Amino acid sequence: MKPTRVTVSALRAMKQRGEKIAMLTAYDATFARLLDAAGADVLLVGDSLGMVVQGHDSTLPVTLEQMIYHCAMVARGASRAQVVGDMPFMTYQASIEQAMTSAGRLIKEGNCHAVKLEGGAQHAELVRRLTGAGILVMGHIGPRRRACTRWAASRSRAATPVAASASSRMPARSSRPARTRSCSRASPPRSPTT
Fold first, then answer.
1. What is the pLDDT of residue 183?
2. What is the mean pLDDT of residues 80-108?
3. What is the DSSP track for 49-103?
4. Burial class (CB in 10 A: 0-12, 13-18, 19+), 97
5. How far apart, in whole angstroms, are the C-alpha atoms of residue 3 and residue 189?
6. Which residues, 6+ apart, have CB-to-CB distance to 108 below 8 Å?
7. How far apart are CA 134 and CA 7, in angstroms?
8. By C-alpha distance, which of 24, 6, 185, 148 is closest to 79?
9. What share of the chain is helix, strand, coil (3-state, %, to 5)?
10. Are 165 and 138 in contact (CB under 8 A)?
11. Where are the beta strands (DSSP E) in the chain?
12. Rounded distance, CA 157 to CA 74, Å?
C-alpha cells in the first residue's frame, strides 16, 4: 500500500500540536527513497547542490534547469514526503512574471509540491501571486546563504589594506554571529593589520 503524502495541512496540524517536523535535503532518487523510508516529512532539493554535488564555492552558479533535474529525481524517489524545490538565485528576483514561470517549471517539470525562496517583505506580492496560481511557497527564515555570500563578496573588494581592514570590522546586518560564520567559505582572509 502506497503511503499517504504529507500535505501542507498535515504539516500545519503537526506544528499546532507541537510535533517536530523532519525536513532534510536530498539531491537524487536514492537518497530521497532512504530519507522518505526513514520518515522525513519534507525533502528540500536545495540549491546547496551547487556546493555539495557540483563542487562550487557558492550556490550562485546553480541554474533553474539543474534544479528541475534534481527535483525530478527526488520526486521519483519520495512516495510520502512533501518535495520542496529551491528557487535558485536570479530565477525570481527580476520580475514577478519571471518568478511565476520559474516556479511553474519547478512544479510542472520537477514534480515539486512547493517552491522555496529567500527574501522577506519585498516578495509578498510574489508569494500572493504564486499561491493564487496554486503554487505552494515555503519561505526561508534564518541566515540566507545567497545574501550572505553577496555581503561577504562585497567585503572582499577593498582596494587597499586600510580599506580591507575597515570592511572586515563592519558589523553584520544581524546581531547573530552565526550569520557571518555561515559565510566562512566566501569571507576574505583577514588583513595582517587587523
1. 39
2. 96
3. HHHHTT--SSSTT--HHHHHHHHHHHHHH-SSSEEEEE--TTSSSS-HHHHHHHH
4. exposed
5. 50
6. none
7. 14
8. 6
9. 45, 10, 45
10. no
11. 23-25, 42-45, 82-86, 114-117, 136-139
12. 38
Look at residue 103 in the predicted model and tell me its pLDDT.
97
5 C-beta neighbours (distance < 10 Å), count: 13
* CA 115/CA 128 separation, integer angstroms: 13
Q: pTM here?
A: 0.74
Of the chain, the end-to-end C-alpha distance in Å amounts to 63
pLDDT in tens, 150-187: 544 444 444 444 433 433 444 444 443 333 333 334 44
Q: What is the mean pLDDT of the chain?
A: 81
Helix (H) / strand (E) element for 155: namely helix 145-155
Per-residue pLDDT for 56 more than 70? yes
Distance CA(117)–CA(121), nearest Å, equals 12
